[in-house]
Amino acid sequence: MMSLAILFLLSAAPGGWQTFTNSNFIADLCGDDSVLNAATLGGVVILETKPEIRVRHHFYHTDGLGVNRCLGIARDPEGNLWVGTDGAGLAVIPADSVRARLYRAGELPLRIRAVAVDSGRVLLGTEQGVYVVELRGSPLNFDDDRVEHYSFARVRELLSDRVLAIAAGPAGYWIGTNQGLTQVDQEFSRWRAFRRPLGDSVSAIALLSDGRIVAGTELGLVVGDTGGLVPIVTFAQAKAVRDLAVTGSSIYLATADTLFQVDSSGTMVPLLLGDIRSLCAGAVLWAGLGGNDEWGLGLRYLRSGQSWESYYFNGVASGMVSDCALGKDGSIYVGHHSSYISRIKPDSAVQLIVSPLSWAVQVRCDSRGRLWFSHFYPGGLSVYDPDADTWGSRQLGSGDRNVVQAFGLDRHDTKWVFNKSGSVVAIDSLGREAEFYLPELVPPPGGNYEFAFDSRDRVWVGLTNGLEEFDYNGTLFYPGDDRHALHSEGLPASEVRSVAVDPQDRVWVATPQGGAMWDGSRFQVYTTSNSRLLSNNLYRVRVDGGGRVWFLSDLGLSIFDVATGSWTNYTAQNSGLIPNSQSLTGFYTALALDDQQGVAVIGTARGVSVFSYAPEPDSGVSGLKIFPNPFVFGVHRGVVVANLPSDARVRVYTLSGMPVAELPVSPGLGRAYWVPDKTGSGIYLVVASSRQGIITERLALVNRGQ
């Protein structure tokens, strides 16, 4: 089976956040013959090119960029990198630093498309005109800088506020807009406008060795100086000019489909086909390719006398994440809307695996460590065995029967499917298949709904018309004792996007208008009006081993500690969560928890965020903490036993030594959770044991009615 192993350098942020993106859409390049700097839609990459090509560092939003979507980059004489971002303004990467700094937030537009550096100045092209940062001799001391803003309203010769390109020359600066070309001297006192030098939009500018400039428009190339511009290339049909580079007497022209070499007479020779977005020319000609926002086409480079070669930056197969799961080996498996699966290994390597089926929608791990993927179109299930590095697949029939719209995997390794034909299909661990028709279930228009399972093996599935409860009474192939019911009354919205079950068999759901908990008889609703939930627009819900409920919404992550009633919220502003800088609908797509490691994985439309929520390791159980203590029935929800080592077992006894309960422990969270709803008032012993020893604490349960 074909696979591609790629070394991936993790980016760790304060608070245990890590970022994985696809950085092969390369928006801009700068550098020299030994170091190439790339602004990509997945961050900034510094690439050493001698003696061999290797990544020196990959910068993400968690490294100070603010966002991962970077559009322009330039290097100053001191080696500092100035980065124009799409969503965080201007970022600066000091020379030889592994941290970026945002430049004076609030003073510049959030979207900066073009960046040029002159001695003591940084020029920025934005949708609101040109910004000039006067560095005053200290490029990394932002406090003494002066920022000037030039707009069409202020300078009519600018022609438009939509600036597409900037170049710094010996006699001043050239500014390309969607209405033509503007030249200004270094004192910004004399402005000259060149409306429609050949076409309307001047999207690329480069300096020639004789001090003249070459500018690219949708109709061709012009060459000239302040005395005038003359066409040297005229396109037969309009083309999108992406970038220009000059070395010696050659001009390199990047368009949306071809890279050309242009000589002084205007003769164009095609060198490379592809969506060329950026160029850097020297001893090696570098071409950064585009693609789409989710995944890019990487780098191409041409050494003198050789053929074109390719280089791809490390990362996940696509920024668009459909689902994710953690394997038994500690790897993270990421599904995409393609045939590629990304496997992020514990040693920080990323392996791209080719699935036999396309469009993986959901991912689940079985008890043997195999990964099961559900597929929308053309449908079916696939399974990957990491130990053997082999794939298998299971077709459910033809047409709509094979299209999976809801998927789940229970503790017996039975795969549960709701297909587009409207039936529930269960495939047990031996491959035997049972089919159930539940008339109240309606096939939804999409295919990303979920099954969940409680300790009694009841099956729960959320669809567009509510929460379905299905009890097959432990007899999968005998339908006579089956029971099923649809619960919708009391839900904040009829659509149930996600389902999870807590240790007390309470069922939690995520809907477009809030969360809810089914306690067996009714729904308890959680919204922004009665809780600290970030948003009512919820996509996923999960429950960790400590009984905490995780809600993933359009604004971020909300964690509800049921025992204490407290909420913790994580957004792109207060954590390392990937920001939604483009304000995309449905940006946060997936959520998976691993209680053994204390790791949460959040899938987005632009990559993967990994959050380590495990507490600092403890040397033993000497710091055992129980709260609330005393526990009051009717006031408190549950008891938390915290500060546990990962191998702890926790039991509750009466004072006479009679066993009362053994509590499930979350190794990653270092705590156990207990709801003593069927236990009487009194004093109980909580005993925690591990390899480090045994410790006993007393717990008081109080019933105010007694």
Remind me, CATH topology of the largest domain?
Methylamine Dehydrogenase, Chain H
Report the portion of residues in β strands. Answer: over 45%
Q: How far is it from the N-terminal to the C-terminal residue, by CA?
A: 67 Å
Label the overall shape: elongated
Major β-sheet strand ordering: 43-42-41-40-44-45-46-47
CATH architecture assignment name of the largest domain: 7 Propeller
| CATH class assignment of the largest domain | Mainly Beta
* Number of continuous helical runs: 0
Main sheet makeup:
8 strands, mixed
Query: What's the average pLDDT?
Result: 92
Q: What radius of gyration results from the CA coordinates?
A: 30 Å
Structural class determined from secondary elements: mainly beta
In percent, how helical is the residue content?
under 10%
Number of strands: 67
CATH superfamily of the largest domain: YVTN repeat-like/Quinoprotein amine dehydrogenase
What does this structure look like?
- This protein has 706 residues and is mainly β.
- The chain folds into three domains: 22-311, YVTN repeat-like/Quinoprotein amine dehydrogenase (Methylamine Dehydrogenase, Chain H); 368-566 and 579-612, TolB, C-terminal domain (Neuraminidase), CATH 2.120.10; 625-702, Immunoglobulin-like, CATH 2.60.40.10.
- It contains no helices and 67 strands.
- An eight-stranded mixed β-sheet has the order 43-42-41-40-44-45-46-47, with no helix packed on it. Strands 1-35-34-33-32 form a five-stranded antiparallel β-sheet, with no helix packed on it.
- Strand 24 (241-247) and strand 25 form a beta hairpin.
- The N and C termini lie far apart (67 Å).
- Residues 1-14 have low confidence and may be disordered.
